[in-house]
Amino acid sequence: MTLQQLKYIIQTVQYGSISTAAQKLFITQPSLSKSISELEKEMGITIFYRSNRGVCLSEDGTKFLSYARQVVEQAELLEHRYKNGAPVRRVFAVSAQHYAFVVNAFVALVKEYEKEKYEFSLRELRTNDIIEDVRTFRSEVGILFLSNFNREVILKLLQNSNIQFNSLFTAKPHIFVSRKNPLAKLEKVTLENLKDYPRLTYEQGENNSFYFSEELHSTVDSPKSIIVSDRATLFNLLIGLNGYTISSGILSSDLNGNDIVSVPLESNEIMEIGYIYNTDRPLIPIAKRYIEHLNSYILHYKKPV
User: Fold this and answer.
1) Could you tell me which of 88, 118, 225, 269 has the fewest CB atoms within 10 Å of its CB?
2) Per CATH, is 3-164+275-301 categorized as 3.40.50.10780?
3) Record: fold of 170-272
């Protein structure tokens, strides 16, 4: 086993494909595949399951990846200490549902490290993909919400993956609408008020269960429904089609401008938004600092429950 092989494993997990990882590593695909196979043979485990769609970690591979990351990080620290004082490249990744404060906190974190070498990743993903990223250590931190409806299912899934949920805040549901939408003039709206307007929700792919929905009241029938995959499209459609989406009520004018407003939604539900991490690996200092930034922006933008 070599340090280079461990780096190959980490990069392959990062890109989810041996061919893509080989391109990024500037080596041939057969060379990378051979190196991984030799490591699997030496360790006596299957690290990756291969398919036409790419690779995914086995259970043994998930555990192996955790140790591999620690070894590589320690090696980089040694190089920093003894090899020409080379600066350590800071590495951090977060996977999240579509929340503006997640981006605000990420920006603040990057600014703190802008004079250093770093490789940071921010991925706005489907709910199941967030959990999978944290389970396989692709991301140190994930951001998602729990409700009365999805809590039991999501927490069970997290528990089975050795992932812990830590609450950041709770919020009553709101709708986001264009400032020109007639609903924006109301102090509160009901689910009945929403029936004449297009409902915008985030696509959840193969795991398109109501429990994985990013919006509350996902089981309520809507005559007009539009599914999108990214936040920019959703906000454009809120304005262009007078649509609505259900969320926490936290808006950032820095990112979203002033054309979108939030209106309280009458509901017995509560959104508990929190961060998740894999308990098989303690949070690294950068992750802890990111969470501090999250709490700072939440306090700034959050409306009282």
Assistant:
1) 225
2) no
3) D-Maltodextrin-Binding Protein; domain 2 (3.40.190)
Side chain identity, residue 297: Y
- Distance of alpha carbon 144 from alpha carbon 242, whole angstroms: 26
Q: What is the DSSP string of 145-173?
A: EE-TTTHHHHHHHHHHTTEEEEEEEEE--
Distance of alpha carbon 159 from alpha carbon 17, whole angstroms: 27
Each domain of the chain, given as residue ranges in start order, spans 3-164+275-301, 170-272
219-228 contacts at long range (C-beta below 8 A, 24 or more positions apart): 219/149, 220/191, 222/194, 222/195, 223/195, 224/196, 224/197, 224/198, 224/199, 225/198, 225/199, 225/201, 226/198, 226/199, 226/200, 226/201, 227/200, 227/201, 227/202, 227/203, 228/200, 228/201, 228/202, 228/203
In sign, the C-alpha dihedral spanning 133, 135, 138, 142 is positive
pTM of the model: 0.78
Q: What angle is formed at CA 144 by the lines to CA 188 and CA 164, rounded to 5 degrees?
A: 135
Distance, CA of 10 to CA of 205 (rounded, Å): 25
Q: How far is CA 202 from CA 231, 246, 299, in A?
A: 8, 11, 26
The secondary structure of 244-266, three-state, reads EEEECCCCCHHHHCCCEEEEEEC
**Which H or E run includes 42?**
helix 29-43
Residue located via tokens 């009282």: 304
pLDDT digits (tens, 9 = 90+) for 167-221: 999 999 999 999 999 999 999 999 999 999 999 999 988 767 789 999 999 889 8
